[in-house]
Amino acid sequence: MHVLSPREFEITYVIECYTHLSTCVLSSPRGSTKTAGEMRSMKAVVCKAYGPPESLVVEEIEPLQPGRGQVVVGVKACGVNFPDTLIIQGRYQVKPPLPFSPGGEVAGIVTAVGAGVDTVKPGDRVIAFTAYGGFAEEVRAEAAALIPMPDGMAFDIASALVMTYGTDIHALKDRARLQRGETLLVLGAAGGIGLAAVELGKVLGATVIAAASSEDKLAICRQHGADDTINYSTEDLRERIKELTGGHGVDVVVDPVGGSYSEPALRGMAWNGRFLVIGFTAGDIPRIPLNLTLLKGCSIVGVFWGSFAARDPEHNQENLRELLGWLQEGKLRPHISARYPLERAADALNDIIQRRVTGKTVLII
Fold first, then answer.
1. Which of 51, 60, 62, 266 has most Cβ atoms within 10 angstroms of its Cβ?
2. How far is it, in rounded angstroms, from Cα 130 to Cα 352?
3. Residue ranges matching CATH 3.90.180.10 in the chain
4. DSSP helix/strand/coil, 338
């Protein structure tokens, strides 16, 4: 049996928390009937058997019909995320029924509504987090899970917002209570979570230090507001933190990376600092000496956005509405490093696996 890595476990829980919000199967409800005039098909990226991105196929399949409380969304763009690379390989203890389409962060237009739905109508532009099913021309979702798209927002930008910015606003506002004038260190700062944290840190009035593994990545961080940068492939992370903060240390750390970077970042914290544990993309769980929290009077704080959103959906919706407002005001600029057509979904997934992505990658459908 496959043993989940910490990062896989985290994302598995996100999917489990949201699976009840959507039903993303690849066929119409059993027992449905169609007239000759209704015969049509839709295109989808289909996972028929677990495997690498190259094992996915693009097929014409039966279109979707909404059930009670559900809608069908015509997908215009779908964000590509790390969970998508895992779900197609069956690296979960809870798996979607085969066949299925990966992709869970979509933006599009409502094309049909089911019985009991009065909150949206065909033609409405929406964002949906559906756990899976989004690499297709249509996805079925619960009406209650939809987020209205503001007028003028581009579909690709809308599809790159929910998972990364939703995680970071919860991390910085709810968990760290980041204050104006404090110093924020972001590890893995050019990735999806990292770059969103850089932008949100600036919106919230912090001085932002971005840490990443190459000068090209750090250049993107500076373009998105980072005040200072650390190249931890060539610089000593702890010493550079001390230098940039005049020995004071950083007040908040965003860590979606783990591995060998966590402990030196923690050692570089200020008194009463907050260390935010978001994930372990480096693959290893750090073994932190707990005496550091005593000596520095600091806190290690877990950030589990999937669980938070499931437990407190109203607060999560408030956070997302605030994000959309900042986006409309031009305070946030989601970075999309690549856009692919549906037929090149495997390339988009391989970009993530091979760590070629800065910000987000999006499928345009």
1. 266
2. 20
3. 6-161+335-364, 165-306
4. strand
Indicate if the alpha-carbon torsion angle 344, 347, 349, 352 is positive or negative: negative
CA distances for 222 relative to 4, 107, 210, angstroms:
35, 28, 8
Q: pTM of the full predicted structure?
A: 0.84
Class of domain 165-306 (CATH, top level): alpha beta
CA distances to 99, 167, 178 from 304, in Å: 29, 8, 17
Decide: 176 and 197 in contact? Cβ < 8 Å.
no
Return the CATH number of 6-161+335-364, one of 3.40.50.300, 3.60.110.10, 3.90.1150.10, 3.90.180.10. Answer: 3.90.180.10
In a structure prediction context, what are the per-residue pLDDT tens digits for the chain, which is 365 residues long? Answer: 343 443 443 444 344 444 444 444 454 433 334 444 455 789 999 999 999 999 999 999 999 999 999 999 999 999 998 889 989 999 765 588 999 999 989 999 999 999 999 999 999 999 998 889 999 999 999 998 899 998 889 999 999 998 899 999 999 999 999 999 999 999 999 999 999 999 999 999 999 999 999 999 999 999 999 999 999 999 999 999 999 999 999 999 999 988 899 999 999 999 999 999 998 776 688 899 998 999 999 999 999 988 898 889 889 989 999 999 999 899 999 999 999 999 999 999 999 888 889 999 999 99
Continuous segment of H or E residues that includes residue 245: none
Mention every residue, 6+ apart, whose C-beta is less than 8 A from residue 15. 83, 87, 92, 94, 104, 131, 132, 306
